[in-house]
């Protein structure tokens, strides 16, 4: 999701609005959410699908991958936690558990409805399997410490049809957000809680459906408000008609905003082009929907799931009550018990009801006799060999459940989160602090102007106290394993060896009845029980008996584990690597060792006896049905799960390949040419084997080909054409090698490639094949990807039609599926980086120094660029045509008025296109480029604010200037939507009317459209057609197209490349100037450029474009730093390949010293070589002098000077960028870069992990880094990101609603999006974090500060886990959380969070970034509020200096900063300085906003107040002096009233861009009337910008001012 902006909360807030919604306006558009509100039914016919994929996805336990891929039943649950549990931690304030019985009203209603579905629901009940369901409660079970009986069925959450599964309290937890608006009755629990380790193979794909009612027609009746629903069926018809009237008003209200979005209404990302992004409008316009809905209704079955309580009795523990749902599996209760503090030591047990053992995979509703209050007994079962191993592993996981080892080692998808360390506990459990009691002194390194950038605070809480207590010294399998035959006969299963903290050694035997001590020692095998014989069913019980220290520390570990927020324990979907790590103790761990070296590397235990068939899993999930919302959710969830598992397996395999742990399939060839198969994944290295890429750039081309291929896979997967299959593809960079991992097409290994390819070419276009089925599939996809079908001539002279580049190969697998691979040239070539033999670039592009000759010939444009270019050309076409058609109709009216012959009017119109075509190419191009730039910019503005005042319809009356219409720009003023309508009506008339009178005007219209098509270099004469032939410049291909059309195709490709330079880069700079984008580091900059379709090879151009802009110096510095680091990365890759394995640490340290150190000739540290043993004397001793063998290895010859020269050279060759500096320090000084930030960026780019310590970058004598500082090298992994398309649609619709002022509706849609995201991604994902941020923001705007804090806390934890602890997103999340904490009265917490955010920002980008000014203003305001004026002054001065630099000294933001400064100075008693600043503020407001503006008036009021204060002070000083003239004058004590909390919060909201706008009902009525009037005339709506903020009565709405109120006022 492009989740940029922020949002609101869950339903507690909504219950109020649920009752009201009757008015036509407010009842409006929940269509999208309505029609799709079937979400909740996300469980329809699961089992059918499950048959296809259950076996396959069995292993993929959510992304919360089980440790080492063990099955749920293998334990592991301890250290982690179920998703649902994750969902629930902060009980959202405000809702209480409802009493258990459902209110009668509801039951009666649902009874009546259920009569309808009785038959269906019975059928599907048996199908559905409640895998997911359970977890919502599993977590209920987890109210660990207090065994509270929380109700699961929340019968009445204010609105009378809410049935929540998941106790009511948790209803507001992020993952449990009820569905939207009037349908708020349906609440499902959105976590398809793949309990982390728990999904059993059966339960794997199930989704819950908990719909208490049959939802009548989705589009119409379901929207009918509550009252109507209660009325009898007879009213349905009437309601329907009401409804349609309502819809009309809806369309009216939102039409404008929607239209402006029309251009992106087709959802690019998701490929389902015709899917509507902005929900409602386009849906309503299809009258046939109602009929479809009737049909579709049959597919959706709603099941009412009643919860009940059962009592669990386990030996040696208190009986406990847990809430369960009838659709849960018994398995889920197991999982809960294995995670609870008092029962977690058991893994081998069964559950019995009345003496009957329950089947693990049975649903609770199918168990006879299970009812409210039933008692289920936990019965210990005998161990088997496998169960004993699972038990030992589970114990090991419990013991290491709270340490950070896995997170630092980059394993098991665990990562760091420090929020609760920073806030010293859970903020939701804290009391409000009184401002006086706050300790606010920040550490010195956070103070403005401090130059030290320490690294240690990056990982707080690594102190001794916070260290996990050790329970045992050693727990490992014994060397006496396996038991010899005679002992097997006695039941021995395995032997363990334990060393306790008391230093006692024990050997333990596992037998079917449990664990006991035996008499073996390290040297002597004696398996007899020791005396006294102790036999315990659980290993933990046994250890607690023999070691008091174990008992004590294990209790501590458990307590700490339970205190952790579930989001700190759930696994992330993809592994996040830390770039800095402390030195960790390495402990003895046999299980870890076994996992690393066991022969079953790559075998997953929970699929009996086989490796996973990745290709089959990846393709089957794509083939799942996607007709209804529940089906789509199920499908997307399966795709995401299998994909995240595949990425993990591919990463592990790629590392094994580089580490030399996998045997090649062609072992005889040289290492660079070897290929590997491991775990059903094919691996190849990024080298040019067999001169495949010789003509394209050799190894350089081979290195980028996998990345381009991955881009191709990404877009084809997004288009998602049924029947067209791509391979699972992951590109891994590790230790200097690029490894491509791909799933294997069935049967491809059995035959040569030549035989299997049925489409495309395997020899770069010499012989080319085509295939009708591929043509059909690819042309479908090509329409969306703007790829043009084209013909080439094969070697045998045949003309072959293709709809892709020739390299793209089609192979039909043995499974009959149509696969495409080698998608490296999916997009048109970037001619700015190609040497063209028989073709020239445009003059203006040549003047910029293009073409630049690149290392390889595989440069392609990005999909984002192609889309922007086509869109810009389309608007140009539409406006051009519309303008001329208007002229035409005006002329026609005049002609008919003057009774002139039609012919006369026709001539000039015909001449004009003729004249226009004669115009010189380049001139026209230049104009069209400028025009595009203009259109694009204007278009953007329209989209953003829905301001459409630009239409000048009076043009109809103007006299047309027929001479140079194309050149004068006024037609670009025509509003796009008006233009579109005109063009559409004309084209219809051209096609439709064959009448005599119309024919000549039709001809003229045709001429106009043709002229417009020529103006935008369309490929078709008579209509708009801009598509690309990816092969136009490929060498060695013979094109079958006539030269003219080939020239046109080439022209388009050149135009697109020129568009990037002339339009996109300037637009990016403009965007940064308008503060729409302010990247904080290199990777943020890369993201922002990619979003505009600008490749990173243009970074030199971008840096040059930023250089002259004074306000963007901070960004220019980031760009230069990124350029230098990228050049260094290119060199590092080759450098690392040249380091022998024994010297990697020293080699990397040496490279870093040369790059960032000051030492002129850093010695090579730690490269003391081990001398081979010689005779008896110096056996194996490390000799002081290395043997006087050959010269030093190549890498040791690198010097800082040589490295810098290579970097300069690389910058010139690759980016065309001249670096004017002699060494690294010059650059760092000149651009204000920081070495620590460069180190962070470089480490993240190349996958380095360095030691967490303070580095001295300024020492000229001692090298900064030594080999001991290089902790690890991690893989850098690139892969596609499967999307949650429905959630994305809900989210964008919700955002549009909020921008249009319907806050509560937008709120509901976004809550719904959150629900869907949890459905697809599970509990952890970057998009969920962004959605949570938005929900928190909306809660805050609607005044629910505590809920805002609860959501934002989750957003922060999730961002730390998924993005990284120092990612720019995480910094933003921290600053938002600080604001919400302050609003909740937690002042000291707010300051701690802001200090953390400032520290991270210092580390990432230094002090001169606009983000920093915002943080400093926040800190200053809060310090001001608690009376720390001196401290506050330092921060506010810093904020003012940065703001003035970035926004200009006379900007509104500078005015706000000056006003803050004046406030602080006046509190310090310095009224003279305060007056100076406030006067400046007043003059800025007066100049920019005028005297009458309220801001200007406020400022003059402030000036008056300050003046009187200053006068009073002077008087007092004079009096004091008169009294004691000889004493030095002392300031009399000032009585300064500290500002009230309310005024501080207002000010905070102002600087953070949160505005509350009050709009009266009268305004709204006027506004509606205005819209309806104008709708009829198709006119623009003045004042839309001001008024659209409030369509709901006096609703508080948020404007994302992005800064300061006055801009919006």
Low-pLDDT windows of residues? 1-304, 899-970, 993-997, 1177-1188, 1578-1609
H/I helix tally = 52
Q: Kindly provide the radius of gyration, computed on alpha-carbon positions and rounded to a whole number of angstroms.
A: 35 Å
- Identify the overall geometry: globular
What's the overall average pLDDT, rounded?
A: 75
Largest sheet: 5 strands, mixed
- Estimate the strand proportion: 5-15%
What is the SS-derived class? Answer: alpha+beta
Spatial order of the strands in the main sheet? 2-1-5-3-4
- What is the tally of beta strands? 27
Distance between the termini: 30 Å
User: What is the helix fraction of residues, given as a range?
Assistant: 40-55%
What are its keywords?
disordered N terminus, alpha+beta, five-stranded mixed β-sheet, disordered C terminus, five-stranded antiparallel β-sheet, 1609 residues
What does this structure look like?
- The chain has about 1600 residues and is an alpha+beta fold.
- It is built from 52 helices and 27 strands.
- Helix 3 runs antiparallel to helix 20 (about 615-625), helix 39 runs antiparallel to helix 40 (about 1305-1320) and helix 42 (about 1345-1360) runs antiparallel to helix 43.
Quick overview:
With 1609 residues, this protein is of the alpha+beta class.
Per-chain topology:
Elements: H1 14-20, H2 31-35, H3 46-57, H4 83-88, H5 104-127, H6 131-140, H7 226-230, H8 236-262, H9 280-284, H10 289-297, E1 307-313, E2 320-325, H11 330-339, E3 349-353, E4 356-357, E5 375-380, H12 385-399, H13 405-409, H14 419-422, E6 472-477, H15 485-489, E7 494-500, E8 505-511, E9 514-518, E10 535-536, H16 539-546, H17 548-563, H18 566-569, E11 580-581, H19 590-597, H20 614-623, H21 629-658, E12 675-678, E13 681-685, H22 698-719, E14 724-726, E15 729-734, E16 737-743, H23 753-756, E17 757-759, H24 772-785, E18 790-793, E19 799-802, E20 809-812, E21 818-821, H25 843-847, H26 863-898, H27 902-918, H28 921-945, H29 976-992, H30 996-1015, E22 1038-1039, H31 1043-1073, H32 1082-1091, H33 1099-1106, H34 1113-1137, H35 1144-1156, H36 1200-1215, H37 1224-1231, H38 1235-1246, E23 1248-1251, E24 1270-1273, E25 1276-1279, H39 1285-1299, H40 1303-1321, H41 1326-1341, H42 1345-1362, H43 1368-1383, H44 1387-1405, H45 1410-1425, H46 1429-1447, H47 1452-1467, H48 1471-1489, H49 1494-1523, H50 1541-1551, E26 1554-1557, H51 1561-1577, H52 1584-1587, E27 1597-1600
Parallel strand pairs: 1-5, 11-23, 14-21
Antiparallel strand pairs: 1-2, 3-4, 3-5, 6-7, 7-8, 8-9, 9-10, 12-13, 13-16, 15-16, 15-25, 17-20, 18-19, 18-22, 20-21, 23-24, 26-27
């Amino acid at each position: 999701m492009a989740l940029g902006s922020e949002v609101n909360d869950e339903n507690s807030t909504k219950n109020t609005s649920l009752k009201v919604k009757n008015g036509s306006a407010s009842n409006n558009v929940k269509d999208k959410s309505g029609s799709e509100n079937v979400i909740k039914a996300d469980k329809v016919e699961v089992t059918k699908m499950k048959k296809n994929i259950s076996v396959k996805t069995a292993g993929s336990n959510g992304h919360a991958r089980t440790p080492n891929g063990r099955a749920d039943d293998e334990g592991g649950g301890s250290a982690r936690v179920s998703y649902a549990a994750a969902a629930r931690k902060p009980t959202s304030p405000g809702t209480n558990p409802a009493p258990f019985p459902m209110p009668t009203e509801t039951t009666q209603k649902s009874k009546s409805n259920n009569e309808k579905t009785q038959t269906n629901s019975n059928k599907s009940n048996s199908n559905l399997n409640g895998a997911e369901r359970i977890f919502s409660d599993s977590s209920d079970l987890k109210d660990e410490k207090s065994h509270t009986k929380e109700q699961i069925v929340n019968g009445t959450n204010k609105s009378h049809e809410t049935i929540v599964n998941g106790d009511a309290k948790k209803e507001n937890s992020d993952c449990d957000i009820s569905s939207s608006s009037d349908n708020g009755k349906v609440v499902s629990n959105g976590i398809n809680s793949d309990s982390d380790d728990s999904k059993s193979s059966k339960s794997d794909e199930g989704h819950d459906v908990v719909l208490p009612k049959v939802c009548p027609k989705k589009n119409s009746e379901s929207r009918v408000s509550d009252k109507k629903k209660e009325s009898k069926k007879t009213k349905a018809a009437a309601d329907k008609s009401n409804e349609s009237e309502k819809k009309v008003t809806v369309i009216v209200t939102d039409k404008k905003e929607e239209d402006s979005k029309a251009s992106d209404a087709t959802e690019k990302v998701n490929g389902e082009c015709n899917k509507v992004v902005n929900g409602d409008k386009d849906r309503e316009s299809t009258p046939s929907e109602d009929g479809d809905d009737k049909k579709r209704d049959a597919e959706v079955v709603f099941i009412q799931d009643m919860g009940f309580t059962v009592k669990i009795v386990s030996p040696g523990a208190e009986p406990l009550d847990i809430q369960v749902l009838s659709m849960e599996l018994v398995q889920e209760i197991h999982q809960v018990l294995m995670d609870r503090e008092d029962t977690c030591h058991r893994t081998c047990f069964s559950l019995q009801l009345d003496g009957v053992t329950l089947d693990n995979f049975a649903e609770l509703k199918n168990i006879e006799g299970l009812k409210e209050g039933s008692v289920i007994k936990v019965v210990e079962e005998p161990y088997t060999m496998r169960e004993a191993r699972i038990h030992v592993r589970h114990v090991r996981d419990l013991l290491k459940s709270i340490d950070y080892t896995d997170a630092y080692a980059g394993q098991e998808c665990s990562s760091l989160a420090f929020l609760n360390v920073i806030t010293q506990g859970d903020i939701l459990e804290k009391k409000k602090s009184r401002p006086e009691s706050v300790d606010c002194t920040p550490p010195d390194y956070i103070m403005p102007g401090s130059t030290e950038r320490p690294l240690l605070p990056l990982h707080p809480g690594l102190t001794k106290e916070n260290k996990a207590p050790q329970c045992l010294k050693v727990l490992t399998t014994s060397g006496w394993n396996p038991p010899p035959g005679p002992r097997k006969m006695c039941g021995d299963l395995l032997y363990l060896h334990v060393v306790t903290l008391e230093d006692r050694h024990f050997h333990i035997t596992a037998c079917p009845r449990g664990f006991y001590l035996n008499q073996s020692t390290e040297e002597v095998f004696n398996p007899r029980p020791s005396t006294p014989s102790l036999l315990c069913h659980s290993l933990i019980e046994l250890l607690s008996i023999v070691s008091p220290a174990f008992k004590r520390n294990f209790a501590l570990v458990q307590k700490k584990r339970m205190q952790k927020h579930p989001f700190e324990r759930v696994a992330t979907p993809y592994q996040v690597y830390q770039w800095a790590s402390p030195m960790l103790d390495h402990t003895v761990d046999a299980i870890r060792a076994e996992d690393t070296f066991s022969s079953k590397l790559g075998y997953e235990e929970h699929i009996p006896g086989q490796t996973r068939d990745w290709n089959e899993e990846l393709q089957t999930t794509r083939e799942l049905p996607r007709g209804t919302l529940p089906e789509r959710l199920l499908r997307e969830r399966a795709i995401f799960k299998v994909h995240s598992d595949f990425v993990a397996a591919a990463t592990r395999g790629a590392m094994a390949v580089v580490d030399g742990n996998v045997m090649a399939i062609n072992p005889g060839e040289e290492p660079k040419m070897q290929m590997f198969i491991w775990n059903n994944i094919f691996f190849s290295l990024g080298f040019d084997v067999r001169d495949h890429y010789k003509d394209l750039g050799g190894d350089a081309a081979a290195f980028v080909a996998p990345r381009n291929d991955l881009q191709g896979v990404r877009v084809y997967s997004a288009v998602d054409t049924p029947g067209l299959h791509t391979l699972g593809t992951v590109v891994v960079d590790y230790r200097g090698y690029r490894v491509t991992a791909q799933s294997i097409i069935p049967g491809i290994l059995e035959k040569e490639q030549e035989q299997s390819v049925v489409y495309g070419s395997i020899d770069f276009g010499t012989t080319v094949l085509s295939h009708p089925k591929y043509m059909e599939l690819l042309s479908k996809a090509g329409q969306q990807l703007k790829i043009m079908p084209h013909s080439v001539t094969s070697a045998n002279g045949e003309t072959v039609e293709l709809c892709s580049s020739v390299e793209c190969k089609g192979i039909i697998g043995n499974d009959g599926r149509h696969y495409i691979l080698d998608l490296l040239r999916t997009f048109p070539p970037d001619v700015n980086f190609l040497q063209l033999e028989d073709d020239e670039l445009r003059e203006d592009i040549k003047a910029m120094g293009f073409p630049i000759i690149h290392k390889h010939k595989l440069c392609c444009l990005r999909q984002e660029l192609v889309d922007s270019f086509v869109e810009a050309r389309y608007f140009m076409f539409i406006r051009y045509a519309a303008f001329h058609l208007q002229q035409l109709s005006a002329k026609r009216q005049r002609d008919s008025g003057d009774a002139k012959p039609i012919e006369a009017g026709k001539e000039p119109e015909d001449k004009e296109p003729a004249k226009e075509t004669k115009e010189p190419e380049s001139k026209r191009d230049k104009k069209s480029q400028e025009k595009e730039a203009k259109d694009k910019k204007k278009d953007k503005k329209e989209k953003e604010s829905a301001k459409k005042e630009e239409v000048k319809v009076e043009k109809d009356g103007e006299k047309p200037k027929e001479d140079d219409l194309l050149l004068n720009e006024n037609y670009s003023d025509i509003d796009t939507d008006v233009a579109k309508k005109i063009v559409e009506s004309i084209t219809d008339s051209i096609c439709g009317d064959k009448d005599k009178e119309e024919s000549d005007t039709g001809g003229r219209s045709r001429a106009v459209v043709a002229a417009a098509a020529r103006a935008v270099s369309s490929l078709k004469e008579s209509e708009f057609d801009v598509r690309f032939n990816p092969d136009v410049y490929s060498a060695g291909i013979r094109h079958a197209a006539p030269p003219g059309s080939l020239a046109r195709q080439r022209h388009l490709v050149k135009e697109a490349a020129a568009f990037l330079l002339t339009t996109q880069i300037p637009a990016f700079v403009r965007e940064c100037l308008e503060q729409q984008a302010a990247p904080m580091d290199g990777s943020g900059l890369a993201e922002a450029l990619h979003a505009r379709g600008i490749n990173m090879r243009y970074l030199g151009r971008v840096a040059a474009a930023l250089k002259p802009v004074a306000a963007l110096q901070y960004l220019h510095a980031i760009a230069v730093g990124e350029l230098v680091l990228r050049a260094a990365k290119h060199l590092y890759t080759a450098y690392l390949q040249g380091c022998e394995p024994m010297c990697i640490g020293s080699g990397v340290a040496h490279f870093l010293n040369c790059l960032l150190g000051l030492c002129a000739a850093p010695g090579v540290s730690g490269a003391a070589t081990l001398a081979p043993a010689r005779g008896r004397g110096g056996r194996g001793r490390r000799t002081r002098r290395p043997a006087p063998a050959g010269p030093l290895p190549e890498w040791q010859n690198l010097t800082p000077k040589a490295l810098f020269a290579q970097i300069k050279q690389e910058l010139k060759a690759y980016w065309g960028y001249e670096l004017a500096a002699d060494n690294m320090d010059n650059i760092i000084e000149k651009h204000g870069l920081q070495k620590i930030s460069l180190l962070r960026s470089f480490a993240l780019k190349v996958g380095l992990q360095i030691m967490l310590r303070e580095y001295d970058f300024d020492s000229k004598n001692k090298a900064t880094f030594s080999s001991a500082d290089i902790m690890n090298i991690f893989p850098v992994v690139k892969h596609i990101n499967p999307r949650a398309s429905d959630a994305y649609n809900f989210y964008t619709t919700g955002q549009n609603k909020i921008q249009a002022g319907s806050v509560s509706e937008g709120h509901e849609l976004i809550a719904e999006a959150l629900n869907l995201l949890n459905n697809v991604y599970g509990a952890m994902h970057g998009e969920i974090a962004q959605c949570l941020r938005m929900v928190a923001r909306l809660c805050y705007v609607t005044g629910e500060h505590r809920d805002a804090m609860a959501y934002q806390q989750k957003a922060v934890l999730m961002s730390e886990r998924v993005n990284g602890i120092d990612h720019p997103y995480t910094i933003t999340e921290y600053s938002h959380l600080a604001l919400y904490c302050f609003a909740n009265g937690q002042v000291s917490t707010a300051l701690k969070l802001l200090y953390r955010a400032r520290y991270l920002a210092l580390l990432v980008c230094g002090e001169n970034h606009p983000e920093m000014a915002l943080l400093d203003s926040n800190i200053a305001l809060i310090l001001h509020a608690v009376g720390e004026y001196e401290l506050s002054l330092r921060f506010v001065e810093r904020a003012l200096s940065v703001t003035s630099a970035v926004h200009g000294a006379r900007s509104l933001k500078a005015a706000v900063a000056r006003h803050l400064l004046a406030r602080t100075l006046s509190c310090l008693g310095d009224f003279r300085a305060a007056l100076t600043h406030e006067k400046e503020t007043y003059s800025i407001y007066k100049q920019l906003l005028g005297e009458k503006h309220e801001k200007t008036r406020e400022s003059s009021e402030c000036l008056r107040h300050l003046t009187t204060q200053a006068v009073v002070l002077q008087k007092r000083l004079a009096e004091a002096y008169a009294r004691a003239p000889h004493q030095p004058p002392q300031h009399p004590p000032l009585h300064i009233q500290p500002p009230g909390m309310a005024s501080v919060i207002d000010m905070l909201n102002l600087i953070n861009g949160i505005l509350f706008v009050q709009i009266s009902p009268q305004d709204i009525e006027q506004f509606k009337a205005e819209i309806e009037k104008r709708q009829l005339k198709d006119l623009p709506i003045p004042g839309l910008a001001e008024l659209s903020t409030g369509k709901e009565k006096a609703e508080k709405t948020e404007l994302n001012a992005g800064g300061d109120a006055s801009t919006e006022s």
